[in-house]
Design a protein that fits this description.
Elements (H helix, E strand, L loop, with lengths): L2 E6 L4 H10 L5 E8 L7 H4 L11 E3 L2 H4 L4 E4 L7 H4 L7 E4 L9 H7 L9 E2 L19 H4 L4 E3 L3 H16 L7 E7 L14 H4 L4 E2 L9 H10 L7 E7 L6 E8 L6 H12 L5 E3 L17 E8 L4 E8 L3 H16 L15
Helix pairs in contact: 1-11, 7-9, 7-10
């Protein structure tokens, strides 16, 4: 079966990555693309790398234009999709790549985003642990909740990277959730395509810039929400992102205290067992750690695990492409599950090198 697809916000980075992946998806047919200031212009003017989609013209982002498609992907800034999604009447599946439908807590939305609060949709991280099972490999996963879903909230790229990094240890009871520290090196494409002085190449080259320091980053409540689902009662974390001069990618280094009396072997086993059967989340061999370069263009999250015995902490280093597995890939992977399409359709574990 072929599903008709519309992509709202097609002229941006996330929209462009959605289109790149959708263009080769055998079950999806891209029929409509929309933009804001670029409406009426050829898509190829905004996304010159998408040669196979040169026939498409950007249209206005309105409910009337989007309604009637089988699947609609929203790649809009936070606060922009909620009002639109509420007006759709004839769409089989809506996937929001923005923040509008991620949070279940209205108080968290008010504290970190502000503006109108919208209902939470099914969270689009299939591999995320959402309960406990007989063993680490048997913990329930979010993919079960995505089967047959009609509304999906794709994750924040930083949030899903950190949540996937921590969930196995929390669900297995080998780490504590009250003293988590994570520092992320992130590429500027995560900030979108809008022109900002601090994102100019001349401002980024040769430097690393921390931002949203001191617990102010908007992905913090999303991470806490995911960790509660994995079994953490009151997760607390110090979250510090650092902008670095690579166009795309996230390298998240996360540490947490090991539960006293837990062996190093048991700690590592929690992650290895949790992700042993996952197509897109890979735990690397002991002593091996990922590079962001190895995830570019791929729908993969690569993890290295180390035990800092002197500090009594586990160190998880995770790498993703923020536009692929972090956003567009997660959205398409979740859409596949919702529609009963094989989960890996249209997605690759292979990156681009050099």
């Amino acid at each position: 079966m072929t599903y008709s697809v519309a992509v709202a916000g097609a002229s941006g980075y996330a929209g462009g990555e959605l289109l790149r992946l959708l263009a080769d998806h055998p079950e999806f047919e891209i029929r409509t693309v929309t933009g804001h200031s670029n409406a009426g212009k050829p898509l190829i003017a905004s996304q010159p790398h998408l040669r196979s989609l040169a026939h498409l013209t950007l249209r206005e982002t309105t409910p009337e234009v989007l309604d009637g498609h089988d699947v609609v992907f929203f790649a809009l800034p936070h606060g922009a999709s909620g009002a639109l999604t509420a007006q759709l009447k004839n769409v089989r599946l809506a996937i929001d790549c923005g923040a509008d439908h991620r949070l279940t807590s209205e108080a968290d939305w008010a504290a970190f985003y502000g503006g109108d609060f919208n209902e939470a949709w099914t969270y689009g991280v299939p591999e995320l642990i959402v309960g406990t099972g007989a063993s680490a490999g048997e913990h329930p996963r979010q993919r079960a909740n995505l089967v047959g879903a009609t509304k999906i909230a794709a994750p924040g790229c930083n949030a899903s990277t950190v949540a996937l990094s921590l969930a196995p240890g929390i669900a297995a009871g080998v780490i504590e959730a009250s003293d988590i520290v994570t520092v992320l090196a992130v590429g500027p494409s995560g900030a979108g395509k809008a022109a900002h002085t601090h994102l100019l190449g001349s401002e980024l080259m040769g430097t690393a810039n921390p931002y949203a320091v001191g617990g102010t980053h908007r992905h913090i409540p999303e991470i806490q929400q995911a960790l509660r689902g994995a079994g953490a009662e009151n997760p607390t974390l110090s979250f510090t992102p650092v902008l670095v001069p690579m166009s795309r990618g996230i390298l998240a280094t996360t540490t947490a205290r090991i539960v006293p009396g837990t062996s190093a072997a048991d700690v590592r086993a929690a992650w290895e067992q949790a992700y042993a059967d996952e197509t897109f989340v890979h735990v690397l061999p002991e002593g091996v750690f990922p590079r962001t370069a190895d995830t570019v263009g791929a729908n993969t999250c690569l993890m290295g695990i180390a035990i800092d015995e002197a500090a009594g902490r586990v160190v998880i280093v995770a790498a993703v492409d923020n536009l692929a597995k972090g956003t567009a890939g997660a959205a398409i992977q979740s859409a596949n599950i919702a529609l009963g399409i094989p989960e890996a359709t249209g997605l690759s574990v292979n990156g681009v090198a050099p």
